[in-house]
Amino acid sequence: MSIPIILDCDPGHDDAIALVMAHRSPDIDLVGVTTVCGNAPIEATTRNALRVMDFIGAEEVPIARGCYRPLARPLRLGTADGPSGLDGTPDLPDSDRAVEPQHAVDALATWLREAPEPITLVPTGPLTNIGLLFLKHPDVKPKIKEIVLMGGVFYRRSEYFTPTEFNIFCDPEAAAIVVDSGVPTTMVGLDVTMQVLVEEPQFEALREIDTPLGRVVLDWLAFYEKLHRGTMGVGGALHDPLALAAVLDPSLIETRPAHVAVDLRGTVTFGATVADFWGERELPDNVRIATSVDADRFFALLYKLLRD
Ligand code: RIB
Ligand code: CA
């Protein structure tokens, strides 16, 4: 039985690879795609979703355009994907198909209401559309099986320290609505996504997938890795593909329950995701957090989906 999912994304190189994996996996029924601002403005992320989906032959999957700015703050664009949101690749032709007539938030509600069974939501960008969905259409929550999102950072380890992760930082108010929505939610954060880095060994394996799709993915990752190397001194982290992969094979990650709060008031820490691992605030657990990942099995799954 394939898993029905909706991917809410801000392509974005890693979002684009998550789209490729979702469409190519026989175990996933990609019901629809919604776009949000984040890595690039909504016009660019929507253009990229359309042209990536056309390129991989997914013209039948509906795409609905979403929010152009966060719920309560100005848009702060991500810096990992270039102005187009998908720099560094031979320009994929633009799609000539239109997005859905409904706004993404309403399309999400329609797709969920019409679904014969509950759908897994996979947000891989800022959570603006999902937060607004819960404000405008709270009745759809029972039609969501679970949310598996890329977002947050919880264990402040010394090898890299960042108080916030971009998807949450970009729209903290939306993230606060989602973590307290009551919908079963797993947060796949930097703690694990920074362990699935594309570096030379991974490039070697990708070069062996010598297909038109493999070559485009290689181009995307060459740009993405170079930019990451320049800014963070590490390879390109496959953040969003890991969130998608965790839906396909939950055993790729280990998770634990926790109460997570999103800092909305910090002057330098707003957008931080703070987990109360020891229950000191005596608040009920509201999400699960990814705590470890089997990186080798993740890459094996990625190569398989690109190759088959
Ligand atoms: O912090 C990583 C997240 O920010 C990923 O979703 C990436 O695409 C960017 O949106
Ligand atoms: Ca993203």
Brief synopsis:
This protein has 308 residues and is an alpha/beta fold.
Describe the fold and architecture.
It is a single chain. The chain is α/β, with parallel strands linked by helices and 308 residues long. The chain has a single domain (3-307), classed as Alpha-Beta Complex (Inosine-uridine Nucleoside N-ribohydrolase, Chain A). It is 37% helix and 19% strand. The chain is built from eleven helices and eleven strands. The chain has helices at 13-24, 42-55, 104-114, 128-136, 166-170, 172-179, 190-193, 200-207, 212-232, 239-248, 295-307, and strands at 3-9, 28-35, 63-65, 119-123, 144-150, 185-188, 197-198, 236-237, 253-262, 273-276, 287-293. A nine-stranded mixed beta sheet has the order 3-2-1-4-5-6-11-9-10, sandwiched between helices. Strands 7-8 form a two-stranded antiparallel ribbon. Helix 2 links the parallel strand 2 and strand 3 (63-65). Bound molecules: alpha-D-ribofuranose and calcium ion.
List the helices and strands and how they pair.
Blueprint: E1 3-9, H1 13-24, E2 28-35, H2 42-55, E3 63-65, H3 104-114, E4 119-123, H4 128-136, E5 144-150, H5 166-170, H6 172-179, E6 185-188, H7 190-193, E7 197-198, H8 200-207, H9 212-232, E8 236-237, H10 239-248, E9 253-262, E10 273-276, E11 287-293, H11 295-307
Parallel strand pairs: 1-2, 1-4, 2-3, 4-5, 5-6, 6-11
Antiparallel strand pairs: 7-8, 9-10, 9-11
Helix pairs in contact: 1-2, 1-10, 3-4, 4-6
The structure holds alpha-D-ribofuranose (RIB) and calcium ion.
